[in-house]
Write a structure and sequence with these properties.
Blueprint (H helix, E strand, L loop, with lengths): L3 H19 L5 H11 L6 E8 L23 H15 L8 H11 L3 E4 L7 H17 L21 H4 L25 E5 L2 H15 L2 H10 L7 E3 L11 E3 L5 E3 L1 H27 L4 H8 L13 H6 L4 E5 H9 L4 H11 L11 H8 L4 E5 L7 H17 L9 E6 L8 H11 L4 H4 E4 L19 H12 L7 H18 L8 H9 L6 H7 L2 E2 L2 E2 L2 E2 L13 H5 L6 H17 L6 H6 L8 E7 L5 E4 L19 E2 L12 E7 L5 E9 L8 E4 L25 E6 L29 E11 L4 E3 L3 H5 L4 E11 L42 E3 L2
Parallel strand pairs: 2-9, 2-10, 3-7, 3-8, 4-7, 8-9
Antiparallel strand pairs: 1-13, 1-14, 5-6, 11-12, 15-16, 15-17, 17-18, 17-24, 18-19, 18-20, 19-22, 20-23, 21-22, 21-23
């Protein structure tokens, strides 16, 4: 993302535009005040928080530079195979590896269990995949020529009968429809990758598709890997198809399950269609090779290294099995999955069909290259009861394979962002989870170490705003085109301004290269400025990027620490946008060399945090004069607006929930009823919160308006200068929507009746007289009332204790426009939250 600030503004503006459009009122000043409320800090959103990602120490080694000392226990041929395999898909050779990645590779290949504990964005996944790929490369170098993946798309062939697809004796897929009918090598799970949730499984699959099943990898394996594939498979609830390929007839005999075959055919057809749709999209929109590779990796390709169904994996276990602990537990109990474990155990013991002829000595030698990898992501999550269950599950799996934590054919690799090798509790956790006596000896816990960032002197002047602001303006003026001539001219102007500011002596003919080199110049100290702006109490943390309207408490604002703050907020916002645009250019291939040549002053990568919340409603003061001068007008009928419920305004006036009619846009007040203790009185009070303390939080204002009933919630329309529009019927009443079918609408009448409301207490009286006699204390308007048509039609049913939960609280008719929506097949609630 080139500019996270403008991206955030786009999301925010679209959200606010939706609120303004969908919940428009007839009062311009109410809409204006609401807009200002929505743009106030912590109401609808917070300004983006910016977090610098750790700058991990580099090993200085690219994949091509790895030697036998970096990857021990490998021959030169095996090492060359490993390096080529990794460069083809898993890891770019353009960047050096992190120091913790090379350390984990070296330690794991030295037969140590390893746990990587670096933070997010540190390449933890590559840290545990690199040792796995190294071990797989040792085997790959020795595999004989393979017939490859079966590319016969059998599910397309409608002429195939069930016996052509499923063997009637074994009830497994027939060889001609199997994905791997004849590999020419031992089959078994080389690595079990365990994830805590399916979402992480999907993310891992995308990475493995690029690393093991891209077009480049396929071509390389075909020519250099004897046409072999390194197979991987997701075994979760999403994997086609659950169940078994047999069922029982009425005599109790096993027969082919035709329904499972059709289900499998359908699911594979859908997967193939998704894959083909992506290819069509790439061709139609002429996507680049890099974009195409990323898009293709989102869906499985059914003719390659990714196992396409459970039935295929049950016959030929994938080299890499990806699952979660729930599915792994189920697999342990099902006979249909037993072949996955049996074949893996046979492979480990050299008892497979390709190793039977080996002598005992040859088997012992071969076993050294047959290593089962147990890989656990987010290890720290497996604590407490769940962690104990998973630990026992893994012990069962290892026992079934004939392994134990200290077995030479077992390699445990794990990742965690919170375990600490120097913490005794972390060591105890590892020992308990894996069942080892001394985790300090059995495991190598590898940290990710950061490059040091020097402190800034207090006297260092802050950066000027204009050079960066201008970059943002020109960038968007030219439709985000950095290759535009005007953008290049602005790069030259901004670079010269920064050179003057920091007294930098630098010559470069290309304007874009010039400004990028200026930003990395040590005299500007931009790297140090950016990191130090995110330091709170001695630690790098996420901080608020910009000061929002209404935010007067936060002292750690990113922009205020790096830019001169005497200019306007909009200028500073654009300056941050320009800075981030320039920062993003280092990630383009043509400019990567600049950063590599200035590695000690390279700028941090950032993670942005966006915060949005749902607006549950608005509340307003009953007194329309209780309002800031900026929002006063003669038409509005509500005072100051509030984004949260409260009893009183600052001037002491009652605050109630603000509602509106989505037909005419008039505003109304709603509140919970508090009835007088005097049963003879028709007096009641409106509250913004439920008077039923026992019911909180179920009875709070956050209860959806459409779920409220008439007995608990009342609505008052402050008339102001508006005209009351009677209902079209001569009688002026309507039949209000009931809550359940046991209430008959025809037994009740609903209408708007004249009433007054006390602006201080929220008391309602069914008369205008109070508002006439005491206009400073009372407002005139109309109250929504329901009464029984025959039994005392003057009595409000809210005061009848024998009637509860009879009608919906929101009237079907608006007092301002008089339109009746109760005739619709589904009642349209025209009185809604003013969000």
């Amino acid at each position: 993302m080139r500019d996270p600030i403008t991206a955030f503004d786009t999301i925010k503006d679209n959200y606010i535009r939706y609120v303004e459009t969908a919940f428009d009122t007839k009062f311009t000043s109410v809409n204006s005040e609401r807009l200002d409320k929505l743009n106030t800090d912590k109401v609808l959103y917070r300004e983006p928080w910016i977090e610098p990602l750790p700058d991990y120490k580099s090993s200085g080694l690219t994949i091509s530079n790895l030697s036998e000392s970096d990857v021990p226990n490998m021959t030169q041929q095996e090492l060359n195979t490993f390096k080529t395999l990794v460069k083809t898909g898993l890891f770019s050779d353009s960047f050096p590896m992190y120091a913790h990645q090379t350390e984990m590779l070296r330690e794991a290949m030295n037969k140590k269990h390893c746990i990587i504990t670096s933070g997010t964005g540190s390449g933890k996944t590559e840290s545990f995949l690199l040792p796995l790929f190294a071990q797989l490369s040792k085997e790959l170098s020795k595999w004989s020529k393979s017939n490859g993946t079966n590319k016969d798309y059998w599910w397309r062939n409608e002429l195939l009968n069930n016996k052509d697809i499923v063997n009637a004796n074994s009830f497994q897929l027939n060889s001609k429809v199997q994905q791997r009918p004849n590999d020419g090598r031992p089959q078994g799970v080389r690595a079990l990758i365990l994830y805590p949730m399916n979402a992480l499984v999907e993310d891992q699959l995308t990475r493995l598709r690029k690393a093991l099943d891209s077009n480049k990898v396929r071509e390389w394996l075909k020519t250099e890997g004897n046409n072999n594939s390194i197979y991987f498979g997701r075994y979760t609830g999403n994997t086609p198809t659950s169940g078994e390929l047999f069922s029982f007839n009425k005599d109790g005999d096993k027969v082919i399950n035709k329904y499972k075959i059709e289900q499998l055919r359908k699911e594979l057809t859908e997967l193939e269609k998704s894959s083909n749709d992506i290819i069509q999209y790439i061709e139609e929109y002429n996507k680049s090779a890099e974009e195409a590779e990323n898009l293709i990796a989102f869906y499985p390709r059914l003719d390659g290294a990714e196992m396409r169904s459970r039935f295929d994996m049950q016959i030929a276990p994938p080299d890499i099995l990806i699952t979660n602990y729930s599915m792994l537990s189920i697999m342990q109990m099902r006979e249909v999955d037993s072949n996955i474990f049996d074949k893996t155990k046979a492979w480990l013991n050299c008892d497979d069909e390709f190793s039977i002829a080996l002598s005992l000595e040859e088997k012992l030698k071969e076993k050294e290259n047959r290593v089962f990898h147990l890989i656990i992501d987010e290890l720290h999550l497996y604590r407490g009861t769940q962690g104990t269950e998973v630990a026992y599950l893994l012990k069962l799996v290892l026992n079934r394979l004939g392994l134990h934590p200290n077995h030479p054919q077992l390699r445990i690799l794990a990742s965690s962002a919170s375990l600490d090798g120097d913490d005794l509790k972390s060591i105890d956790f590892i020992q308990d989870f894996f069942g080892v006596e001394n985790a300090s000896e059995s495991f190598k816990i590898i940290k990710g170490e950061n490059n040091l960032v020097k402190n800034l002197s207090i006297e260092l002047p802050k950066l000027p705003v204009e050079p960066f602001k201008a970059i943002s303006e020109i960038f968007y003026k030219n439709n985000k085109d950095i290759y535009n001539e005007e953008f290049s001219r602005q790069c030259l102007i901004s670079a010269n301004e920064l050179k003057t500011f920091a007294e930098i002596d630098l010559i470069e003919s290309d304007p874009k290269n010039l400004i990028l080199k200026v930003l990395l110049n040590k005299k500007l100290e931009l790297r140090e400025r950016l990191y130090n702006a995110c330091i709170i109490e001695g630690r790098e943390r996420a901080v608020c990027s910009l000061r929002a309207f209404g935010d007067n408490a936060d002292n750690d604002i990113f922009c205020e620490k790096i830019f001169i703050t005497s200019t306007s907020k909009s200028d500073i916002r654009q300056a941050l946008s320009g800075l981030l645009i320039l920062r993003s250019m280092y990630d383009l291939k043509e400019f990567q060399k600049i950063e590599i040549e200035n590695s000690f002053s390279k700028l941090p990568r950032f993670r942005f945090h966006y915060f949005f919340r749902n607006i549950e409603g608005l509340w307003g003061s009953l007194n329309p004069d209780d309002i800031d001068e900026n929002y006063k007008d003669e038409e509005r009928t509500v005072g100051k607006l509030y984004t949260q419920a409260q009893i009183k305004s600052e001037q002491g006036f009652r605050v109630l929930e603000l509602l509106y009619c989505d037909n005419c846009g008039t505003t109304l007040f709603g509140g919970s009823r508090l009835k007088s203790s005097d049963t003879e009185s028709d007096f009641f009070e409106l509250l913004p919160l439920s008077p039923n303390i026992e019911g909180i939080p179920e009875k709070t204002p956050h209860k959806l308006l459409e779920r409220r009933n008439y007995q608990e919630y009342a609505i008052f329309w402050p008339q102001g200068k508006q005209e009351y529009e009677p209902h079209e019927k001569p009688s002026g009443y309507w039949r209000q929507a009931t809550i359940n079918n046991t209430i008959f609408q025809k037994d009740y009448i609903a209408k708007w009746v004249k009433a007054s409301i006390n602006v201080y207490s929220g008391d309602i009286k069914e008369t205008y007289q109070k508002a006439i006699d005491e206009p400073k204390n009372w407002l005139k308007g109309y109250y929504f009332k329901i009464s029984e048509e025959k039994n005392n039609p003057l009595l409000d049913i809210a005061f009848n204790p024998s009637l509860t939960d009879t009608h919906k609280a929101t009237p079907c008719v608006c007092p301002n426009c008089g339109v009746n929506h109760s005739k619709h097949s589904q009642i349209t609630k025209k009185i809604e939250y003013l969000q």
